[in-house]
From TrEMBL:
Organism expressing this protein natively: Pycnococcus provasolii
Gene Ontology CC terms: membrane
Location of the region described as Disordered in the Swiss-Prot/TrEMBL record: 210-237, 430-469
The organism's place on the tree of life at top rank: Eukaryota
The protein's name in its UniProt record: Major facilitator superfamily (MFS) profile domain-containing protein
Amino acid sequence: MKLPTRRWLLVALTFVEVLLATGIMFGWSALSLAMRRDGVYAHLCADDRNQPCKEQLLRYSLIYTVGAFAVPLSGAVVWGPMLDAYGAKVTRVLSLVTFSAACLLFAFSSRTFDAYLPAVGLISCGGMGFFFSHFVLALHFRNDHYGLVHAIINCAFDGSTVTFTVLEQLHRTLNTSIRNLFVGMACIAALFLLLSTELVWNGHLDAPKEEDNAVRDEEEDGGGGGDGGDDSPSKDERPSVGLYGPLLECSSLTIQQQFVSAPFVACAAWALFTIFRTMFVLGSITEQMTANGGGRSAEDAETLVRLFNFLILVSVALTPAFGRFVDRYSLPAGFIVVNTLGIFCYASLLAKHTSVLCIGFLAFGCFRAWNYGLLTTYVQGIFGGENFGRVYGIGIGVFAIQKSGAAPFLILAALSKLIAMFFKRRNRRRAAQVEMQEKETTAEDDDDDKKAKEEETTTKKVKQRRGKA
């Protein structure tokens, strides 16, 4: 079978774009190491030599929580409806503009211009929209390599943790400033914006017509028509009964009917439990490596975090094979494999031995990447491309806000702690002022007593002189 060159070149371009400019916030554990070295928020510590302190780590946790929360929220509120209403082109352009501006905002943030929090939120927001804009390409593979293309897009999204890992390495080895690194990220987004033309994409940013898929399938099968005596249904007839059979065909339903359908409820329930666990591990891996396995030193935990960031990227090389597995053996088999991986990897994180942890890190990388690939394949394959943005963004995204499940509560908790810290510091300043005033009052009283004694002494001397006279 001869594969069209342009389609696969666009898949390769999609992989690079998604890898560099979508879910990069998932690599926060690596970037936070660079920020600690630069002393970002070190002024919150009572002793600059005792880093990282509790207040500094709390601020980092708040930034990550906002970034993680912005991913599903922006997909549900902004990009999902925009993708369905205006298409992939508009979504792509606006999301890249947002991402580039956010990188510049992060680059020029400082102690005096503290914009790290909104910058991270906008980076996640822009990255999610850019991620959404690529799924239209999978529709051009609907009848042949559908699961594979979804797997490639999602493994690039999950592999985007490597972006911050590379930035951290550049910061550590070449002493490149965080400002220069994020200016470079903004330039990369601007380059992708320049590539958003028909000259590059040649109609692949629009959903294909069914007849286009049928013609392509005939060409790839050697131009076979009805002369071969094959009684099996042709590939262009598959969409009429649904990509995964008539029982799961929901593309002809209205968006309201899709939201109450059994396939949607099942997918939402799956997302409710699996994505939360994914985000929990990504956001707490440093704390888990410190506390689990009988406890570890900060240096040992940091070494394991670096190993974690590296090994979860190995799943990128394994994910396309999983996509072909889904194409060949169906979605249910894929869900069974992913669920098995999920159970194993979360148990292995409690282990003490590094070898077991390494296997667990690799299993987690596969679990995360393969799970997202299954979800998008399921949603677009069953509910269709016209409503994909809203079903995945609003539907699955609302449940996946649990991916920061506790994100609203974590944000409130973090803010409450910051407020408590503010009042605590204010009370300390007031106590210091009161103590200073008391010292000043005591000093004044001492001065008054001293003056009174001096006056008394002077009076006695005058009386003595008068008595002698």
